[in-house]
Write a sequence for this structure.
């Protein structure tokens, strides 16, 4: 029998809607379990997984949870308990997918539970707050989560809400039919799996690298390195999904340091090294930052810039910032347990600083490269390539470097 879908809800306020959703999944031929995250009075109707079990898994008891006035603390406790229970179900093969049902608070909790489970686990959040400004990105984060905006409030089984829940039931049931996906399944083929960071200003290079590695017999999975997907790439590298990484666009490291919009978190450029996975790294975008308009400093207006579009502008780093970013990157790469090859093109690192553009400045870029040479341990290879990053010659060098480290 297929494993059940886990419905995450609060039965003290949404029992009618939750059980309707459960019955719709069952009517389709699926199985469903209900998880009750109620932190108030005990619900009249009981779920399959009670708040008592969730509280204990989080290190407390339900009576303490109900008596507490510290909402933030008890929410953390219940969330961590629910994550532990959901992970146990997944590891035991007793979880076919997750669906959450609620407003802003439950959406925050349920999507945190979802993000704690691996890529490939079906995840659907049915939320009346999905469209509130700033919340949707917090709900999804780096997770492969589908947000279903209900438009109407989740209160009472009107024909409108029944229609929403009917569609949600079909969606999660259909997703749960997909065979279980895991790092082991992804690597089950004879093809080695290569992660590839890519971004608009280095897309020509990325596509050439992807084509070259594919022709060489590797499976290449790209990640849009704008601050979220490159964080997800780090997580998946840590979980063992990949055999190597061609990191063309590690600019999220500097953005994290300098407060830019592409900030990719404090762990960017660390997972592959800790796992001993081969890394081929290029510097596309590391000599620019993208601060939000509200965080502009007085000197920013005088900097050389590159407009990606009407909403996004890159500003070129000064030499002090280039040195700082290089030092941080060197510190991360020095921890690597596997081979690291840094390929540095000497004729521009992206379309933002291509030869002939106002931001083209190989002399300033040399500060970054020389700092890397001074700070990186001897085992790290730093190789200069006589090319512009988006030239075929550079892409060819990146492909050859990855093939070499994978086959030695």
């Amino acid at each position: 029998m297929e494993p059940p879908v886990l419905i995450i809800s609060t039965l003290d306020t949404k029992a009618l809607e939750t059980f309707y959703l459960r019955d719709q999944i069952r009517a389709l031929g699926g199985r469903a379990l209900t998880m009750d995250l109620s932190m108030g009075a005990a619900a009249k109707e009981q779920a399959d997984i009670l708040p008592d079990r969730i509280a204990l898994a989080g290190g407390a008891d339900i009576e303490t949870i109900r008596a507490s006035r510290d909402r933030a603390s008890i929410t953390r406790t219940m969330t961590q308990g629910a994550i532990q229970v959901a992970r146990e179900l997944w590891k035991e093969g007793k979880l076919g997918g997750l669906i959450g049902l609620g407003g802003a608070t439950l959406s925050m909790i349920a999507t945190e539970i979802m993000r704690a489970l691996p890529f490939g686990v079906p995840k659907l959040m049915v939320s009346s707050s999905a469209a509130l400004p700033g919340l949707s990105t917090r709900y999804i984060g780096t997770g492969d989560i589908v947000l279903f905006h209900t438009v109407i409030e989740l209160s009472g089984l009107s024909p409108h809400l029944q229609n929403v829940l009917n569609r949600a039931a079909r969606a999660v049931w259909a997703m749960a039919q997909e065979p279980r996906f895991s790092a082991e399944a992804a690597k089950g083929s004879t093809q080695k799996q290569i992660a590839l960071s890519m971004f608009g200003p280095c897309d020509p290079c990325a596509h050439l690298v992807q084509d070259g590695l594919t022709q060489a017999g590797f499976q290449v999975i790209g990640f849009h390195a704008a601050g979220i997907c490159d964080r997800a790439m780090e997580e998946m590298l840590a979980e063992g999904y990949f055999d190597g990484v061609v990191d063309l666009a590690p600019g999220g490291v500097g953005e994290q340091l300098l407060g830019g919009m592409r900030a990719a978190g404090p762990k960017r450029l660390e997972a592959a090294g800790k796992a001993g996975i081969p890394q081929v790294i290029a510097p596309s975008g590391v000599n620019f930052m993208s601060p939000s308009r509200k965080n502009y400093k007085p000197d920013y207006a005088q900097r050389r810039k590159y407009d990606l579009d009407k909403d996004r502008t890159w500003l070129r780093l000064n030499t002090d910032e280039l040195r700082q970013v290089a030092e941080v990157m060197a510190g991360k790469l020095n921890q690597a347990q596997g081979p690291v090859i840094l390929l540095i093109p000497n004729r521009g690192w992206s379309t933002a600083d291509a030869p002939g553009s106002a931001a083209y400045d190989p002399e300033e870029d040399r500060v970054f490269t020389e700092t890397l040479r001074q700070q990186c341990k001897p085992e790290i290879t730093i190789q200069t390539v006589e090319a512009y990053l988006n030239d075929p010659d550079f892409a060819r060098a990146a492909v050859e470097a990855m093939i070499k480290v994978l086959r030695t």
Notes: The first strand starts at residue 5 and ends at 9. The longest helix spans residues 71-91. The chain has 15 helices and 14 strands.
